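Self-study notes.
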Amino acid sequence: MPLGQPRTLLWRLCLALIAVQLIVAAIATAYAWQSVRSFHHAQTHEQLRRIASFLVGPYAELVAQDDFGELDEVVKREARATGLRISVFLEDGTPVADSHHDP
C-alpha cells in the first residue's frame, strides 16, 4: 500500500467520522449564525419601531405645516439630547430633516 493511505478499517472509519463531524459542525455553526443574526435584526426593528412611534406625532405636525426649517432644528436638538441620528423623509423618499447632514 502506498504511503498516506489508510491502512486499516478502523483508520478509515475514524477519518469518515471526523469528516461527518466537521460537516455537522459547519451546518450547526451556519444555523447558529443565522439565528443570532435574525434575533438581533428583530430586536433592532422592534426598538426602531418603538422610537419612531414617539417621534411621529411632533414631526408629522411640522411636516403637515411644511415647516421643514423648524423640523430640521427640532431633529438636530433631539439628536444631540439622545445621541441618535434622526432623519425624516417624505412619503416619496425626499429627505426634509437630518440630524447629521443638511437635508
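Second protein, same conventions, sequence then structure:
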Amino acid sequence: MLRVRVPATSANLGSGFDMAALALDLYNQFDIKRYHRLVFKGFDPRFNHPDNLVYQSYLKALKHINPMTEAFTFHITLSENAIPVARGLGSSASCIIAGIMAANHFHELNLEGRDIFQLAVKLEGHADNVGAAIYGGLISVMQTGKEYTIIKHDIHKSFTFDLFIPDFTGDTKTLRDVVPTDFHRQDVVYQLERVAALFKAFKDGDITLLKEAVKDGIHQNKRIQVLKLYTYIHALSNDDCVMVLSGSGPTLLRIRGKGKVLPEQTTTLNKIESLQLSNGTTIEVLK
C-alpha cells in the first residue's frame, strides 16, 4: 500500500498573486492499494465514482508518461481528511498529487520530485499551489518557457498561522472574472514593490512590514468584497497580525507572532489555530 500525505496550502499569498504560497501542517492522507475493482472510502459520497480527482489524476499521469500501459484499479482511502473542499486550501492539489504519486509508484515510472512537480502543474494549473504542497514551507515560482522553478524562502520562527473557514464556497467563475486583465503602469509598480518586501518581512518576522507587503491590487480586495468577508477581517485582526485571503477564498489566513493578544473569535467561522509550516508531501510504502 502507498500512503501519500499532502499538506494544505495558502496560495496567491497577498501581493504574490499566482507566484507565492505556503504549506501548513493540515493534511489529507491517502492510502492507495491495488484492488480488483475501484473503491473509494472516506470521501464525500459525491466523489465516490471513477471521476474522483485522485483516480483521474492517476490516469492522466500514466497516459502522459507511458500511454501504452494498462491502468490498474485501486482501493483508495482518504484516511485523514483535514483540508475542506473548495475553500482555497489546496484540496484539489492534494488529490492531484496523490494520483501522480500512485502512477509513479505502482507503474515504476521513476519520476523524481521535479518531474512530479512539473506534471502536477500541468494537471492542476497553479504552480504556486502544487509547489507549496510538494516542497513545503514558503515558496515562490518562476516560469521559464514551459518549465517552472521553485524558490524556497525562510519564515521567522515567531510566526504562527490561524485559518478561518466559512461554511460556504465561492463561485469559481465569479472569483476569476473579478481579476483584471489589464493594469496601469503605477499598478504594476505598486505590486512589484510589495512582492519585493513580502519575503523579507517573512524572513525577519516583521509584522509591520508584512502588513504593507501583503497588500495587492490584483485579486485580493476584489474577491474579499465579492465574498463579503470584510466584517470578519475587522473582527479577527488588530495591529499584531496580518489577514489575507487563502487562495481565491473564502478561507482567511491570519499570520501572527507567538504570544500576541488577538481579538476573541466573534464570528461563526470555523477556526483552526496555531498551525505551523509543513515540510511538504510525504510518501510511505506500507505492507
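Instructor comment on the second fold: The two ends are 6 Å apart (CA to CA).
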